Give the backbone structure.
Amino acid sequence: MRKKAWMVLLGSLMLMMAAPVFAAEGGAASAGLGKEALGMLAAGFSMAFASAICGIAQGKAISSACEGAARNPGMADKLQIMMIIGLAFIESLALYTMVIIFVKM
């Protein structure tokens, strides 16, 4: 229940912050920020977000693999192979984000 309340609060705050942006008249043009500058800014934020999420996911994957190997040492070899494959898939998400950014720019 508490998590749901935090999500509602966060969503409400995001909507309140977005309203003035849509109400502004030519805010980006008058500030001297062109389409290219905003695109570069968005690309930087999207790569940072993708990298952060991949880092969190890799940490959870390695943690789970270590727990599994500690519980059942006989499965450690198979777990290691599956973990490496999983880490490759997780890392590919960040690489796909980078490729999309380069294609769009």
Summary: The chain has four helices and no strands.
